[in-house]
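Figure S7 source data.
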Amino acid sequence: MSVIVLIEHTGGIIKKKNFEAVQYGAQIAQKMGTTVTALVLGSIAEAEMESLGEYGAKKVLHIADGRLDELHARACAAALVAAAKKENSKVIITLHDINGRTIAPRVAVKLNAGLLAGALSYPDTENGFVIKKAVFSGKAFAYVNIISDVKVIMLMPNTFPPNKVEGKAVIEKFDVSFGEKDFGIKVKEVNKVKGEVPLSDAEMIVSGGRGMKGPENWGILEDLAKELGAATACSRPVADSHWRPHHEHVGQTGGTVRPNLYIAVGISGAIQHLAGVNGSKTIVVINKDPEAPFFKAANYGVVGDALEVLPRLTAAVKKFKEQRK
Amino acid sequence: MKILVCISQVPDTSTKIILKNNNTSVSSDGVTYVINPYDEWYALIRAIELKESGTANEIHLVTVGKADVEPIMRKALALGGDEAIRIDAESNDPNETANHIAAYAAGIGYNLILCGKESIDYNNGTTGVMLAELLGMDFLGFATDIQIEAGTAIVKREIEGGEETDACSLPMVISCQKGVAEARIPNMRGIMAARTRPLKVIAPAAQTPLTAILSYELPPAKTGIKLISPDNMDELIDLLHSEAKVI
Ligand SMILES: Cc1cc2nc3c(=O)[nH]c(=O)nc-3n(C[C@H](O)[C@H](O)[C@H](O)COP(=O)(O)OP(=O)(O)OC[C@H]3O[C@@H](n4cnc5c(N)ncnc54)[C@H](O)[C@@H]3O)c2cc1C
Ligand SMILES: Nc1ncnc2c1ncn2[C@@H]1O[C@H](COP(=O)(O)O)[C@@H](O)[C@H]1O
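C-alpha cells for the predicted flavin-adenine dinucleotide complex:
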C-alpha cells in the first residue's frame, strides 16, 4: 500500500506545484504508515526525477514512452491506474490544474473511487477521510468525506508551500501498454504565451481595472509588475474593451488565481471579480473611491489615484530591493 | 448530428450564501436559481449555432435534478433546445451525476456532448470528463472555440500558459468556457415555442455516492484592513515584507 502522486513536467522541468503535491502525498503517507511514490511520464533527466526525493518521494516510477511527451489525458489516466494497481495505492493525488482536471476524473471512474476536486486541507481521518474545498466560487468551504476505499485527491496549487528535506528518490522503470484510443486527440497547434509566468502559477499578480482609464496607462502597471517579478491580470471589462489580452481576464468567467500577493489597481471588486481572486493570500487594493467594495476583501488598502500611486509604489519596491542587496 | 447539452442549476452569482441546519446545508431562502453560466452562454449557445448553421439537426438538454429545476430547463428550451430530459435525482457527488447522465445517454448515440467548464456552485469541473470516461469517449476541456468538420471537432482550448488547437473525431465530450459563443437572450418566439417542447422526466437508476458533504463553513470576514497613505509606499512595502511576508 502506498500513496501515488502524478507529476507533470514541461519539457523535462518539474515545476514547484508538483513538489507541493509530492510533499502533500508524503504527509498523508506518513500518517497512513506508508510511503509516497511519484509517477513521471515521458522524456526527462534522471536528476530531475531524483529531486522529487527532496520533497519526500521514496520512489519514482518512470514510464519513458516518448508518446507521453505530449499530454494525452487518456494515456495519463491509464498510466496512473496501472501505477496505482502496481503499488496497491489507496490514495491517488494529482493537481487541481488544467491537466490534472482532465486526468483525475477518469482515474476516479476507472477505480470506482471518490474524487475531491480542489483540496485545501490534509484529510482529517478522525471522522472518515474529510477534506476541505472551496465552493460557491470561494464564498464558502465544504468539508467532504470520501467514502470509497480508493480515494482520488486533486490538490489546489499554492496551498501548502513545499520545504526541501534531505533525500533522493529511487527511480524504477515502468512499462504500460497503451491502446490506440489513448492517443486519439491530435494536437494541431500550440501557442504558449512566451516568457511569462502562466497566471494560474503566478505567486504575485498586479491587476488593473477600468480605473486605469485606458490601455495607454498600462506601462506604469507593467513597470510595477516587472520590478516585483509579478504577472499581470485584468478585470473583465478591460479585456472586453481589448485594452488587454483575454487570457489576462480573471474572475468568475475568466481565470482563477491564487497568488501570495494580488495587487488590484482601479478595480471595484464586484463579486464576479472576487470569485476568481479570493483565494489570494494577501490582497492590496488601490482605488480612489474609499467606498469601493474591494476594500472589504483586502488586507491593505491605498485610497488614491492609480496613476499617481503606481509609480511611487514601483519606486518603493526598487528602493527595497537596493537596500537588501 | 445530435448534440446533448448538460445543464446544471446553480444559485445566481450575486447570491449571499447562508448556512442552516448547524452548517450542514445551504439555505435556499431568497436564492434565485439560474442555468450555470458556462452551460447557458457557451455550451447551449454553441449547440444552437451549430444547428442554425446546419451542422447539427437535433439538440437535447439533460439535467440531473428534482422538479424545482424545471423553470431553468424551460428557459434553456426557450433559448433553443428541441427536447429536455430531467433525470429525477438529487446528487452532490460528481461521480453519481456523471453515472446518471451516462446511463441515459449511452443508448441514444449522441455525436457531441457539451457541458460547462465547471458549475459555479461546487466548482468541480469533473462531470464532463467522467461522462466521457463512462461512455468511452474522448474529452477536451476548457474549450474557447469549437468547429465541426466532417465528423471531426477542431477545438481551441486553454492549456497551462497558453492555448492549443486539437482535432478529435466524434463522438466526444467538450467542456466550454468564454469564447465558444456569444451570449444571447431568449426571444418571445422562443419562449412560446418552448411551451410545446417536451420536458421528459426519467427515473434514475440506483447509484452509490462515493463522497458526501458533511458540513460547510463561511470564510472569516477580513477584518482590520490596514489603510496606507498614498504618500507612503515605503510603509506598504515594509508591511508586505515584514508582516504579510509575501515579498
Ligand atoms: C455573470 C457575470 C460574470 C462576470 N464575470 C466577471 C469576471 O470574470 N471578471 C470580472 O472582472 N468581472 C466580471 N463581471 C463584471 C463585474 O460584475 C464588474 O462589472 C467588473 O468586474 C467591473 O470591472 P472594473 O472593476 O474594472 O470596473 P468598474 O466597476 O468600472 O470599477 C472601476 C474602479 O476603478 C476606480 N477608479 C476610477 N478611477 C480611478 C483612478 N484614477 N485611480 C484609482 N481607482 C480609480 C473606481 O472607483 C472603481 O472602483 C461579470 C459580471 C456578470 C454579470
Ligand atoms: N446536475 C447536473 N445535471 C446536468 N449536468 C450537470 C450537472 N452538474 C454538472 N453538470 C454539467 O457538468 C459541468 C461541470 O459541472 P461540475 O463537474 O459539477 O463542476 C456543468 O457545467 C454542466 O454542464
